[in-house]
Amino acid sequence: MPGITREEVAHLARLARLELKGEELDHFAGQLDDIIGAVARVSEIADQDVPPTSHPLPLTNVMRADEVRPSLTPEQALSGAPAQEQQRFKVPQILGEES
């Protein structure tokens, strides 16, 4: 199986909007290659008689029941907000993109 190239890591970093240095590209290329290799080994072991699971042990929902209870009105929730717009908290833009 061919390894993950430095160019592929640079492409993934651009998609994730991460700025990586040259030595980081090499470091992450090795790590990603190890991860993909480990997943491939697990895929080889998993057979038709092994059902896919999300957890190795059976789980039951331990959360409380979802019940409607009294809560704040939008006006009460926004009463202390420094800025609001359309019944929502208004916060400064951080990504520099148009909405």
Description:
- With 99 residues, this protein is mainly alpha-helical.
- Helix content is 39%, strand content 4%.
- Strands 1-2 form a two-stranded antiparallel sheet.
- Helix 1 (6-15) packs across helix 2.
Taken from the alpha-carbon principal axes, the silhouette is flat
**Number of E-state strands:** 2
Work out the helicity level: 25-40%
String of helices and strands: HHHEE
Please give the order of strands in the largest beta sheet. 1-2
Alpha carbon gyration radius: 24 Å
Ends: how far apart?
Answer: 42 Å
Please give the count of helices: 3
Characterize the main sheet.
Answer: 2 strands, antiparallel
Computed structural class: mainly alpha
Beta-strand residue fraction: under 5%
Secondary-structure blueprint:
Layout: H1 6-15, H2 22-45, H3 74-78, E1 84-85, E2 88-89
Antiparallel strand pairs: 1-2
Helix pairs in contact: 1-2
Quick summary of this structure?
The protein is 39% helix and 4% strand.
Features of the shown structure:
single chain; about 100 residues; mainly alpha; two-stranded antiparallel ribbon; 3 helices; about 40% helix
